[in-house]
Structures are given as C-alpha cells and as structure tokens.
Amino acid sequence: MYIYDQHDKTLIGERVAQYRRQTDDYLAGKIRDEVFLPLRLQNGLYVQRLAPMLRINIPYGMVSATQLRALAHITRKYDKGYAHFTTRQNIQLNWPQLEEVPDILAELAAVEMQGIQSSGSCIRNVTSDEFAGINADEIEDPRPWCEIIRQWSTLHPEFAFLPRKFKIAVSGAKSDRAAIQVHDIGLQVLKNEAGEVGFKVLVGGGLGRSPAIGQVIKEFLPAQHLLTYLEAILRVYNRYGRRDNKYKARIKILLKAWTAEVFAAKVEQEWLQQIDSPSTLTDEVIAHAKDFFTSPAYENVDVTSAEATLQQLAGEQIAFGKWRDRNVVTHKVAGYCAVHLSLKPTGVAPGDVTDSQLEAIADLADRYSFSEARVTHHQNLVLGDVKLSDLHELWQAAKQLGFATPSIGTLVDMICCPGGDFCSLANAKSIPVAEAIQRRFDDLDYLYDLGDIKLNISGCMNACGHHHVGNIGILGVDKKGEEFYQVQLGGSALNDASLGKVLGPSFYAHEIPDVLERILSIYVEQRIEGESFLDTHRRIGTAPFKEYIYAKAA
Amino acid sequence: MPKLLKDKSLVDNGWQVLPKDFAGSLPNAPCFVPLDYWLANKQSPLNPDTVGVWLDAEQEPEQFADDIKSLKHLAVNFPSFMDGRGFSIARLIRERYQFTGELRAIGHIVPDQLFYLSRCGFDAFCLEALDLGDEAEPHHQLEDYLAAFSVTYQACVNQEQPLFRRR
Q1: Domains of chain A (ranges plus CATH)?
Q2: pTM above the 0.90 mark?
Q3: Which of A27, A48, A94, A276 is the most buried (most CB within 10 A)?
Q4: Which residues 6+ apart lie within 8 Å of B34 measured at CB?
Q5: Which ipTM value was assigned to this complex?
Q6: Contact residues, B window 114-153, toward A, CB-based 8 Å cutoff
Q7: What CATH number corresponds to the domain at position B151?
Q8: Cβ of A14 under 8 Å from any chain B Cβ?
Q9: Would you say A438 and A398 are in contact if contact means Cβ atoms under 8 Å apart?
Q10: A238 and B88: CB-CB below 8 Å?
Q11: Does residue A196 sit at the B interface (CB-CB below 8 Å)?
C-alpha cells in the first residue's frame, strides 16, 4: 500500500486545519451557506435527509487493518456504530455532527485517510480493480498509476470548480472490474508490441440522467504522458463543459455535442502544447510509485496437499464447498487465493458494516492477508492474499462473523444505493426492495443455477446504484408522491458494457419479487446450455420478457 | 474605491473596469477595457500603464495571444465563485502566453479560493470581488488564505516542478 511521507502528512494536516477554520467560521455566521457548501463537499460532507453524511475516500479500494480499526472507532465515537461501503470503493458515515467533522478528519489523517474531493464538482477519488496486483489476467498493476493520479488530482488548483463532478477509473487487467466504460475518464493499462506501458483513454462514460458508454479518444498514450494528457482533458472540460444546467454539465454531454472526434482533436491540440512539460513522468517517479505495491512475503505452500485437503473438506461440508465455489477467486501466486467477504447477508442494507465488524475484518486481514483488505465496486470486501491452507479456517471465522454468505456474483449480491431511507435526492426507497428480493430468492441452488446475474438498484435517476448497467436494473421513481419501480434489462459494466433497456410501465415495490421471478423464468425457459442471463437477453431481446410479464400482470 | 489585495498587502485600487459593451472614449484614469473593445481599438495608441484588458469567463486568451506580452494589466472575470473557467484562463495567460504583468481576479470569488487563484497566476484581487466590503476587516488575515498549504503536488504557475520532481 502507499505510505504517506512527510509531504503527504503535512498536506493532510493543513487540510484538516483549513476545514476546522472553515467550520468555525461557518458556525460563527462568518461564511454564508452557499459559500460553505463547496468547502464542505470537497471534504466529503453532504447534508442528507436526516443528518449530514460524510464520505471518506479509500483510494482505489485499498485499506489497511489499522485504517479499518480507525474507521470502527470513528463510527462508534461519532456515529451510530455502522458505516456504508459505496460502489466507488469509499465508505460513508450516515450520522456525523457537522461540528464534529473536523475532529473526524483529524482522526482519519492520523491513519493517512481523508475525505478530500469525495464530493463536489471536482476530481473525485480514483477507483480501480479489487484484484489489482493479484489476478492472473493482469497486464500491469494499476495501483501505482492510481496513486500518481491521486496525488495529481488532490487539491489541483485549476480543477476545483469544474462544471460538475469528475470520476476516473483505472483497470490494469483484461477483464474490466472497475467499470471504466461508465466513468468520465476510463483508463485501460496496456502494453504495446515493444512491451512499453501505456493507456487506452476513454472519455464520456457515466450513468445518471443521460447514461452513456465512454468512447476511446486515444488508443495508446505512452505512460510518461499520463498527467499532461489528463490535464489537457480536464482543461478542455473546465473551459467548455456546460455550466448553465447541472443536468447537462457532465463531460459526456460535451462529448455528445462535439462528437468524440472533435473532442479528441481539441484535447490533442491542448496536450501537444504541454507535452514534455515538467509534469511528464520520469522513470524514477514511476519506479518510486511501483515500490509501494510490491508483492508481500508469500510463503511456499504445498499446493497439492492444500488442494487435496480443501477438496476433501468441500466434500464433507457442502456449505464450505458452495462458499469456495462462489466467494473464492484464483490468485496469480500458486498456493494463494483471494476471498470475498460478503456484505450482503439478508436483512442488512447492501454494503453496510458495524463498528465491531470493521474490527473483525481488520483481525481477519491481520491474520490471513498481510493486514490489508480491498473494497469492491460491488460493495463487498476482499482479502487479497489468503493461503490455501488457511482457507477453511478463514471460512469458519467469516461464517461466524456473518461475512460468508455464499452468493458473490448471484442475483442477491446486488448493488444498492442508500435510497430514500437516507438520501435527500432519492425518489424512492431502495433498501427494503433489496431485502424483499433477498427474502424471496433464498434458495441457493436456484441462485447457483441462474449463475452470474448483476442486479443493481437505484432510488433515483442519479443512479448511485448503477441500475443502467445491471443485467437487471431497478430504478425507484416518484409518481404523484407514490413510489414506483421501473425495471430495465440488459445492462453491463464489464468489457461488453451496455445500457439496459426499460421493460415497460413501472411496478409497486411489493410486485418486484414477482416480476423478478417471471423475468428469471423466461430466462430459464429460453436459455441455451451454459448461456448467462445477459447473453440470453441479448439473443432474444426484451420482447419475450415484456409479453410475459405484462400479460400476467394484466 | 474598494481596495486591492496585491502582492499580499492591501493597496488603493485606482483602476476601474469598463462594462463589457463599452464603446466611446476612455476615461482619464486607469481602466480595464473589455476584450472586444481591445480587439476593435488596438490599432490606436493605448498606454499599457493605464489601459488593461479584462476577459470574461467564456472568452479566450487565444483571441489576443499576440498582444498579451505587450500588456501590463490583465483581469479575468468570475461570473460566480463556482465558475472555475478563470483558473484555466489564468494559467494559459501566464504559462502559454508568458504574461508577467499584473493579473487580477474580478467578479465573484471567495477568500478560500485565494490559494488556488494565486497558484494559477493571479496576483491581484479586488476586495469587492471577495465580497468583504471596503472597510470590513476580513475575519482572518488575507495572507493566511494565500498560504493555506505549504505542500502542493502539482506543477503550476508559482511552482514549475511537480512535487514528484522535488521529493
């Protein structure tokens, strides 16, 4: 993991002091509401339906056991003893007091954490792949590049008052787990024929009111030009992005208005003016960043014997076998694996954890995974470096703690925003809908038979629950004060990214489990051996689903 | 006239900003003319010691790139403090067009932006733009805002080398 040096520590300390002064001035009536708004947002503080909400950055999802314990302490001392992991690998507190936020930020700073630019119209926390550095399909570890981007974007003086929020994601693997096609900038790390590292650059992806898939504006950007090129994109956006309408202010709208070709040419023109400036990365800088992400001290594991033992245990204990099949992922190092800690047990809001669970995760990380954990885009956690010979013991511990729900990747491992229970933007609740679905679909064998299905739920069109890119997406809408739910089919945020299409008229909350059951029955009936839900939908289209569901409902 | 924060101290501001649609003859006092006026009248002798140019947020320094070096006073308007286009315009004026004179922020800014503004090349700030009033004693020393951080990651106008080359 990246470790702060004196410069980073000084900066974060000065940021806390600055925000403390801003908060004091605000509480003393010396700063107006509308002026305080961007200041607090750029430190992570929203004002929500019931209380402020504080979003804390977990850069590219990497979190240490020490940091998890500090988060546990903070949720206990300043909040109600629980927190929420988001789709952008961050963590949110739901009930902090505005006047205590400077103290929270000071406690976070002590463990090298912060909420800088986690909200507001600025460059947000950079996100990545939860299997960075450990997956066999990796081209290059994205984390050193993420850290370089994190530092560049932190308190960038030119880009703190952009037309709208700006999100960057980086993937270094063949399989995209970072949803780079639905970010304002998506970066795919590549190697060219000469073996040199560079980036494919996508721009203009995003969800929200006008969902769009990102478009490639540069096929191969040599790595040393990363920051000058990003600076050129941001400068073009800052100067020409719309500011007259907040719903048309994202970079995707500019790209649509100009076309990707025109936008790319404008960026190229700007970039060539600053190419080879001092912001060009040197070999030393790149090597320095990579030094923070070297492999931990892996042990030699007797793989054959470990595998044989696991096989035997899986045979004896069906629950262990199911868990291993679903929640354990292969590792690039023989004898190791990555393990999902599920945050989706039935009855708990997806992504929620308590203070004592955070501490338990820290203990598991200390014991089994070199004291580190990773937050996933799907609102679960991953222990990245678990010895095969520890796997059964870890399963037992995780089961006791409630992290062993063996449902990763299935229908009930859904992404869900906090919705109308917490969020002042929401049109409808989302957590109770998620829970009703979990309760209905509680037969693991049926879920396993359905295979990988991404179900995403958002409580409003701002799409924090990424409903457009769920294989099945559910969107809460408000009609004359009543909550309804629109269903979309066919979205994906993976390499084959696509936006879902609306099935038809929306439903009451209580109808949703039945509607899902019918959607799935069409899939089961129509699928060809081994075909996923998404592939079946792509083959047969929305019509068969639509006919069946609305005929039955009528 | 409201005072000016310049080179970290408060000085009298003898300059007026002429309206965007200004036409006619110039006042007998230092003034910023709008960019369009400058472009229309730059053939006539205008004294750079008493005539500066101001740009609005949607205007482009590219429009008078060749003139920038000959000028001594420029100003960039912020229609609202949330409108960040002026930050990019200032860097272009300083870094690309190598302007070394006074670069003033006018319109609407807030004290907590002074650090970023100065990093992007502004060195003069109208107190009127800061909304602090003329006589009002700012609740903190303005120079404290200008020095909010001692560490910066990025290269910018006042620091050509990014931190990664200084570590």
Answers
A1: 6-110 (3.90.480.20), 143-291 (3.30.413.10), 303-401 (3.90.480.20), 415-553 (3.30.413.10)
A2: yes
A3: A94
A4: B18, B19, B20, B21, B22, B53, B54, B56
A5: 0.96
A6: 115-117, 119-120, 139-140, 148-153
A7: 3.20.20
A8: yes
A9: no
A10: yes
A11: no
